[in-house]
Amino acid sequence: MEAVTNNVYHDKVVIRLIQFSIVWALAAMGAGVYISAELIWPGIDFGQFWLSFGRLRPLHTNGIIFGFGVSALMATAFYSVQRTSHVPLFAPKLAWFCCYAWQLLVLTGGLSLLAGWNTSKEYAELEWPFDIVIAVIWVCFGVVFFGTIATRKIKPIYISNWFYGALIIVIAMLHIVNNLAIPVSIGKSYSLYAGAQDAVVQWWYGHNAVGFLLTGGFLGMMYYFLPKHAERPIWSYRLSVVAFWAFTYSYIWAGPHHLHYNSIPEWVQSLGMVMSIVLLAPSWATLINGVMTVSTAWEKLRTDPALKFIVLSLAFYGLATFEGPMMSLRSVNVVSHFTDWTIGHVHSGALGWNAMITYGTFYFMVPRLVGRELHSVRLANIHFWLALAGTMLYIVSMWAAGVSQGLLWLSVDNIGELSFSFKDIMASMAPYYGLRLVAGLIFLSGTALMAFNLFMTLKGQHATRVSVPAVDPAYGVS
Amino acid sequence: MSGLSLHKKIEENAGLLIFGILFVSAIGGLVQILPILNQDSLSTATENTRVYSAVELTGRDIYIREGCSVCHSQQVRPLIAEVERYGAYSRAGEFVYDRPFLWGSKRTGPDLHRVGGKFSDDWHRIHLIDPRSVVEASIMPAYPWLADRDASDTGNISAKLSALRILGHPYSDEDIDNADADLQGIKEIDALIAYLQMLGTGYSEGDSS
Question: I need a labelling partner for A424 at 20 to 30 A (CA). Which of A183, A216, A472, B91 fits?
C-alpha cells in the first residue's frame, strides 16, 4: 500500500463538469443533426427564425467547442493537475465557480445566438458581453490551474500540464485580441479591424482556437490518460517536450491558409502554407509518441473499450493533422476551399479525435471517480463501433461532396465556358447530404448510449475520497 | 547554459513555463499580423468604394444576424472559373468599411460579392420570402419575418454610424442626424435588399485597383 497524506483530491467538481459536458454533447450534436437535415428538407425550420440554419449552425459549433469541449477540458485538467502535482486543487471554490459560471455562459450564449446576436466571426460568434464573461472565467480557470501547479509537491511539471497551460494562455491571448470591438448596444458591436485586416486577425484566432483548444488542450488529455490507462510510461519524454515547443511555436503561423486566393497579400498566404507543412512534424511526433506508448499494451485493446477509444482517436488525430497541411497547399486548397471537404476535415478532427478521446477518457474516469465498475462494458463496445462507423461515413460522404463541388465549380470546357451551373452542382449534393445525416444520427446515438451508461454508473454514487499519495523524496519539492 | 539545463529550469518553474509559452506563441502572430495591420494598401478604399448608407448598413447587420455568411461567401477568387461565374475578382480595397469582414468559409449557396445589380429588387423579395418559388432546387431557408419587421427596430442606427465614425468611417454629421429618418417606413427586407444591391459595386473592370 502506497503511503498517503491527509489531503484528499477535489473530485466532485470533476464529476459535475463531466455531466455538463455530456449534456452539451447531446444538445450540440442534436443541433448538428438537425441542421444537416435542414440541408435536405429546408422546410423543417417551419418559418421560425430561431430554427433557421444560419442561427442554429453557430449554436452547433459553439455548443460543441465551448459546451462539450471546454467542460471536458476543465474536468480532465482539474482531475490530472491534482494527480500530477500531488496536491488538492488550489482554490476549490473558484473551481466550482468556473464550473457553474461556464455552464451559465454556454446556456445564455447559446440563447443569444438563437436571438441573432452574432458577430459572424467563426468560433467567436458570441457578442461582447459574453466575450468579457469568457475572459473573466478563463482567468479564474488559469488561477485554479496554475495555482495548483505552484503549490505542487512534485518538482517537475508533468507534460500534460504544459499542454493545458498552453490552452489557457494562448486562448486568452487570441480571444482578447480577436474580439476587440466597439459596442453599440448590448447585443451588437463593430470589430476594431476591417476587411482584409479583420480576415487575417480572425483566422489567426480561428485556426489557433482549433490549434490550442481542440488540438493542444486534448493533447494534454492524451498525455495524462493514455499512459495512465495503458499502464506504460510515455515512450519518449524528451520527444514530447521537443514536440510541445515546436507545436506551440509553429501552430500560430498557419492561420492564413484559410485565406488562399483571397484578398490578402500573397506573402502571408505563402508563409501560412509553409508553416502548415512544418506543423506536420510536431503533430506526428506526438502521434508517434502516443502510439509507441501503447505499443507494448495492445492486448488491453481486446477487453478495454476506454483504451480502444483513446487509441482510435490517435488514428484520427494522425489523419486530420496530415490532411490539414495537405489542404493548406495552395494547389489543393484551390479545390477544397469553400466546399464540404472543409466540413469533412473539421469533423474528422471533432468526431474522430476530440469526441473519441473524450469518450475514452470519460469511460476511464467515471468508474474510478465513484469507485464502481462501468455499468455495461457491452454497451461501451457497441458505442465504440457506432462512433467509428458514424465518423467514417461522415468523412467519406463529405470528401465525395467536397471534391466534386471543388472540381465541378472550376471546370471549364474547351472554349473556356463554365461546364456546370452552380445550381446543378448544388442539387447534386443531395445524396451526400443524406449520407451525412445518417452518419450524424449514428454518432449521436452512440453518444446517447454513453450518456445512459455513465448515468447508470454514477447513479446513487458519491465521489470516492482519494487521498493524496506521499511523494517520493527524490522528486519532491525541497 | 546547455539546452538541457535550461529546460530543467523551465520544467520546474511555473512562472518560466508561462512566460515561455506566451513568448513562443506570440512570435508568429507578431510577424504576420503587425505588418498586415500597418499595410496601407489593405486599408485604402478602391476608387468607387464608399461607406454604407444607413439603410445598407442596417441590411448588412441583418445579413450578419441571420447568419447568411455561413452559406454564402463574399470573395471572388482570381481564377478563370470564378471570374466567369461571378465577375471581377475581389480587391482588398473594396472591404475597408466591412466590420467585420464577411468573406465566409463555405459556399453552400453561391458567392454574393458581385450579386449587386444582377437581379431585380422584386426577384430578391420573392426569393427571400419563398426561395423555392423562383429556384426550385434551392435549399436556402425562407425568411418570411423580414417582410414583417420594421427596419428601424434592428438597433439604434445613429449610434451605429457614430461608432463607425470613431473607427474612421467618413460619415458626416448630416448622415448621422438623418439616419433615423432614412429607416422610417421600410421593412427589414428592404434594407437587406438595398445591401445586396450595392454589394460588389466598389470595383468594375477597367478601374485602377
Answer: B91
pLDDT band at A477 (very low <50, low <70, confident <90, very high): confident
Average pLDDT over residues A233-256: 95
Which of A34, A38, A50, A53 should we substitute to test contact with B (largest number of B Cβ atoms within 10 Å)? A53
State how far residue B207 is from chain A, nearest Cα, in angstroms: 16
| A112 in any annotated domain | yes
| Contact criterion met (CB < 8 Å) for B43 and A252 | no
Confidence of residue B4 (pLDDT cuts 50, 70, 90): confident
CA atoms of B163 and B186, how far apart (whole Å): 23
Neighboring chain A residues of B17 at a CB cutoff of 8 Å: 157, 162, 165
Contact A252 B27 (CB under 8 A): yes
The whole-angstrom separation of Cα B153 and Cα A365 is 50
pLDDT for A1 equals 44
Best CA proximity match to A152, nearest among A165, A139, A140: A165
Domain ranges of chain B: 3-38, 42-198
Give the total number of structural domains in chain A.
1
Q: Do A54 and B24 touch (CB under 8 A)?
A: no
Q: Is the pLDDT of residue B65 over 70?
A: yes
pLDDT for A2 equals 60
CB-CB under 8 Å, B163 with A184: yes
Cell numbers given for B170: 467618413
Q: Is the ipTM of this complex over 0.90?
A: yes
Mutation for A interface: B42, B118, B149, B189, most A CBs within 10 A: B42
Return all residues near A274 (Cβ < 8 A) that are at least 6 apart.
Answer: none
The CATH number of domain B42-198, selected from 1.10.760.10, 3.40.50.11720, 3.40.50.150, 3.40.50.360: 1.10.760.10
Residue A406 lies inside a defined structural domain of this protein: no
Segment A341-372, tens digit of pLDDT? 999 999 999 999 999 999 999 999 999 999 99
Cα A414 from Cα A416, distance rounded (Å): 5
Q: Is residue A22 part of a domain?
A: yes
**Chain A closest-CA separation from residue B123 CA (Å):** 17
Q: How far apart are the CA of A329 and the nearest CA of chain B, in angstroms?
A: 16
Residue A205 in domain: no
Mean pLDDT of chain A: 96
Distance CA B51, CA A298 (A): 63
- Name the residue type at position A205: Y
**For B104, nearest residue in chain A (alpha carbons):** A338
8 Å CB contact between B176 and B35: no
